[in-house]
Request: fold
Amino acid sequence: MKTYYATDAFDKHVSDYEAWYEAHPEAYASELNAIRAHFERLPENIRGIEIGLGTGRFSVPLGIREGVEPSAPMAARAIERGVEVVDARAEQLPYADMQFDFVLFVTICHLQSLKYAFREAYRVLKPKGLLIIGFLPKDAPVAHGYQERRRFSTFYQEAVFYSPEEIAKLLSESGFRSLEFNQVLFGELESITEPQQPRPGHGEGSFVVVSGEKK
Reply:
């Protein structure tokens, strides 16, 4: 099994990573809005994790208390924010079967084996648990811009972007059903001056969230 997570760039450039969120608060809030909408599919009193949680920028506002992050400097920042972080990778999660009500990914472009990552998520989810994935569709303006400038990018030189159709196919093959999509980030990042509310489906926004239920 070949796996990949580009930790070097994240290890060395934590401040640059954090600076993006400070520079784009409306886009960041929009992404959170899109993810929160999928939490409506979940019952109350739930336990979930984020895989590749970075500095905790999504875990903390979403109330996620634990997760996985292989970059030690990024994990250190998340720990400062109150998140319990395990040093592990998406393809080999250090959790027993059927532990969680949901699993969140917002870093799939930095993984090479989505098949194994989704398989592991399926394994640790309880029956009817939810896998939630936020991603940048490869043909949308933001991801397209990163791909065009990847030679000069700190974080996206080795990133792999996917279409919603590719993600849906992989999720179905991994055993997930009842897929639901929504989207935000309409227009260029610089034109977003207030938080956006998600719209159903995909094809317009540069940030898409899909959730699927474990059979």
Notes: The first helix runs from residue 7 to 12. Confidence is low (pLDDT under 50) at residues 1-5. The chain is about 35% helix and 20% strand.
